[in-house]
Amino acid sequence: MHNLSFQCPHCQNQVEVSLENEAMVIVMSCAHCKTPLMYYYGEVFEVDQIEMGELQQKQLKAVQGFMKVRGITAPLNKPMHDSTRAGTHSAGQPIREQAINNDDVLDLMIDLETSNDVDEFLRKLS
């Protein structure tokens, strides 16, 4: 485990991050004030909305390139089964008709990366 500790440049709150692998670049938000931050080779900077949008577009292009190389196509958004919404499944029975697969996770990651805030991300889920 690699531990990273720094002060948020916006609110001066102490931030502690544990990473499985060493990283030279990390984009995150402060847990205290929600300011977008970038850790870049040992230094921490605030990231403004324009920079964050550019980073999201670059990541989206990277994910799309990965999907294209691997021959992965994003599934169409299908509405959930009516009984799932109504909560009429039996105890112990799966809620979803199909298991969550890698494409579902990838779609979720894309929605997360292309959302400006939590509310927009949650709207995409419904």
How would you sum up this structure in a few lines?
The chain has 126 residues and is α+β, with helices and mostly antiparallel strands. Helix content is 37%, strand content 21%. It has helices at 49-70, 82-86, 102-113, 118-125; strands at residues 2-7, 14-19, 25-29, 36-40, 43-46.
Helix segment count?
Answer: 4
- Poorly predicted regions are 77-86
Mean pLDDT metric: 77
Overall 3D shape: globular
Distance between the termini: 36 Å
Description:
- Strand 1 and strand 2 form a beta hairpin.
- The protein has four helices and five strands; from the N terminus they run E-E-E-E-E-H-H-H-H.
- The strands form two sheets. A three-stranded antiparallel sheet has the order 3-4-5, with no helix packed on it.
- It has two domains: 47 residues; 79 residues, no CATH class.
- About 8% of the residues have low confidence.
- With 126 residues, it is an alpha+beta fold.
